[in-house]
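Running this now, will post back.
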Amino acid sequence: MKLDSKTLWNEAGKTGLVFGLFSSVCLGLREASALTGSNFLVQAAAIILWAVEFFGCILLMKKYMLDLRDKYDDVTMVDTYRYGRRIGLLSGLILASVDAVLIMNIPQETVTSVMNELSSSVSAQLGSGYEAAVDQVVDRLPLYTFIFQWLYCFLYGSLLSAIMSRYIFMQNYFQDGGDNGDGNGIDNQ
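Update: finished.
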């Protein structure tokens, strides 16, 4: 089969859904660990789940890029790079939405208690204008979280796809004996 732009978006959409759900499950598990109340368990779960998510995304990206290369004819390095960027963009949309919803559902009492602690410890040093600025940030926290989470996922996906797209074709080059189509491969020397 031939890979065109529409097909690439469809493949990236399906794969982005997998990545977004995988990252959202990791986020949900981190939030669930916070309900235990154990500070050690919360931090240990956060570190472990971050590592699972980080390295899991690397392995998933490799798998899906190899699948794309093997499924379609004449897939180039540029195609796999675009595929990975689109995965980052679409999966980031899912993860950023889930993260923003979680922040919007934080109980108001929790937000108030955190703000009171923050204000009492810092307001003497920064003055009264600080509290108004913090209130504005807290009101827009879901929006800021959404934007920065989406941007982070897109940049991570772009960087990862730039590395992986070269890796999978380098791997293919050495498996084929280095033949680049001109008959001067390693096996022909």
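Residues 11 and 130 are 47 Å apart (CA to CA). More later if anyone needs it.
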